[in-house]
Design a protein that fits this description.
The protein has 313 residues and is of the alpha/beta class. The chain has two domains: 233 residues, TIM Barrel (Alpha-Beta Barrel), CATH 3.20.20; 66 residues. Helix 1 packs antiparallel against helix 11, helix 3 packs parallel to helix 5 and helix 6 runs parallel beside helix 7. The protein is globular and about 55 Å long. It starts with a strand and ends with a helix.
């Protein structure tokens, strides 16, 4: 079984990826948070640092690009290709209001004529350079039935993998994914498919396999792997229970790595708080402690609570 780690902006940067891979592993591909190239700047210094090969040793990383301009995509792809990357992912799924207002991410999906022209340009470049280009998409912007036309469009191109998050833009991440549209893709897509959306437990995965009547391999998981860092191990049969001592090692390693590059205390704690909003689902009965932890403003206060919640590694 192949598991891909979905990108989450502000969370799954290079420090997170390296720490996670060293402690948990079992991820076949990591996707970097999106690069948003401009006409005069294919990659910002921060984006370049995140995908720099020296910061991603030993992991299979796929950079992701968010743009509606083929020339900007190509310039960023050239930079990434020169770093040694053989696959680039196109983001057609981001539902953010600021992103969609610029016609990027899921905001590009309704403009099918421009999307065809864009794909013509980037796949011509990809073929000339031997570069694989995968796509992460939603079903559509306004209506899930937009997906029927989108599948026809994608079928015209050598999409290395079509990663489908079966929601429309206005769904954001709420409600149940519209699995019947992924079933349609299974029948009609000429490109290899990857399912993405609402896999938080082994039972979720098994239920999806039964509903879709397929092996469901590979899958892309984002929020589920943040909420339960041991989920990939569970899906691959390594364990059935969450190892909280291992989770403590993961917490400590991340916490100390962030302290090395960030200051003052509150900036590091902001990064850690976001993770705790996911982890609290695993820690029933500790809601009061977690509520206090999320208000901590100094390391000593934070550590006193965090180390009380998680057992020693």
């Amino acid at each position: 079984m192949n598991i891909y780690f979905a990108p989450l902006e502000g969370i799954t940067g290079y420090i997170f990826r390296q720490v996670y891979d060293g402690i948990y592993g079992n991820i076949d591909k990591y996707f970097a948070p999106f690069i948003s190239p401009s006409e005069n700047c294919p990659l910002t210094p921060r984006e370049r640092k995140d995908v720099a090969p020296e910061n991603n040793k030993g992991i299979n990383l796929v950079p992701q690009i968010l743009t509606r301009r083929s020339d900007c995509f190509i310039e960023a792809a050239k930079e990434l290709h020169s770093m040694g990357y053989k696959e680039i992912n196109l983001n057609l799924g981001c539902p953010s209001g600021t992103v969609c207002a610029k016609g990027k991410g899921a905001g590009f999906l309704p403009d099918t004529d421009e999307l065809r022209k864009f794909l013509d340009g980037i796949y011509f470049y990809g073929a000339s350079e031997g570069l694989k280009i995968s796509i992460k998409t939603r079903l559509g912007y306004y209506n899930p039935d937009e997906f029927y036309d989108l599948v026809d469009i994608f079928n015209r191109f050598p999409v290395s993998e079509l990663i489908v998050h079966p929601r429309i833009r206005s769904d954001f991440y709420k409600g149940e994914p519209r699995k019947e549209y992924f079933a349609y893709a299974l029948e009609h897509s000429k490109n290899p498919l990857v399912y993405n959306g609402n896999i938080f437990t082994s039972a979720d995965y098994e239920g999806l396999k039964e509903q879709l009547n397929c092996g469901l391999d590979p899958v892309m998981i984002g929020r589920g792997l943040i909420a339960d860092p041991s989920l990939a191990d569970k899906l691959k049969g390594g364990t059935k229970e969450t190892d909280f001592a291992k989770m403590r090692r993961f917490h400590d390693a991340l916490y100390h790595e962030y302290q090395k590059i960030m200051a003052p205390d509150i900036n590091v704690l902001h990064k850690m708080r976001e993770l705790w909003t996911y982890w609290q689902k695993l820690l029933e009965g500790r809601e009061r402690d977690i509520k206090k932890l999320l208000k901590a403003k100094k390391y000593a206060e934070y550590e006193d609570i965090a180390y009380r919640i998680l057992p020693p590694a």
